[in-house]
């Protein structure tokens, strides 16, 4: 019965999460631990005592995220040219591909 109460808080397999300072994709959840595969490939096994006693940041549960990008240009740059380059790169979808390829 207790498991049913907390089941909604558990991350699903494949979710991108940060738990107890470790960020990665959930590979396995069992009664003792939660296993993550970090983005640079190491696997991290986190005891569920830490999972339950720390915030879980789940980047997969919401369909959209905000990404803030900063651009720097020289003082001599024509602002409309810089905006045009940014818009062109955004339309090419490079950022979306970069994020998808890292999953």
UniProtKB/TrEMBL annotation:
Signal peptide range in chain numbering: none
InterPro entries: LSM_dom_sf, MscS_archaea/bacteria_type, MscS_beta-dom_sf, MscS_channel_2nd
Subcellular localization: Membrane
Descriptive protein name: Mechanosensitive ion channel
Domain Mechanosensitive ion channel MscS: from-to ranges: 12-60
Species, as recorded: Methanoculleus frigidifontis
Transmembrane segments: none
Main subcellular location of this protein, as a coarse class: membrane
Pfam families: MS_channel_2nd (PF00924)
Keywords assigned by UniProt, alphabetized: Membrane, Transmembrane, Transmembrane helix
